[in-house]
Design a protein that fits this description.
Elements: H1 6-12, H2 32-41, H3 45-122
């Protein structure tokens, strides 16, 4: 290849500039400009997208309410189980105390009874 003179080289160079725009949105419903573009391509699509977003939001709230209600029910059942468990422990303790009292009184009464039996039955000669 032959070298070109400097004046010819500068005339043949072109500068190409490009710009890129990135749009980010977050949420169930796109930005109004995007909805407008969608509606131009498919008429009525923007309205359907908004309706779908509203239905999804309503469904999500229903699910959250159901989860909260289930959590409340679960906590109430746990409280009921703990209450019954406490009552069972207290009842068991009361039975143990009554049985212990009977054993204690029987032991206390057995000593004088044994002494009386020995005095009147075994000492007769």
């Amino acid at each position: 290849m032959a070298k070109k003179p400097v004046s010819e080289t500068s005339q043949n160079n072109r500068v190409i500039a490009a710009t890129q725009t990135v749009t980010h949105y977050q949420g169930a419903v796109p930005h109004p400009d995007i909805l407008r573009g969608i509606d131009q391509v498919v008429p009525g699509a923007a309205e359907r997208l908004i309706k779908i977003a509203e239905e999804e939001s309503e469904h999500r709230r229903k699910i959250e309410i159901m989860a909260i209600d289930a959590n409340i029910y679960s906590q109430q059942q746990q409280l009921l189980i703990e209450s019954k468990q406490s009552n069972l422990v207290l009842t068991s303790d009361l039975i143990g105390q009554i049985a212990g009292l009977i054993v204690c009184l029987s032991s206390i009464a057995a000593i004088p009874t044994a002494a009386l039996i020995k005095a009147f039955v075994f000492n007769r000669k």
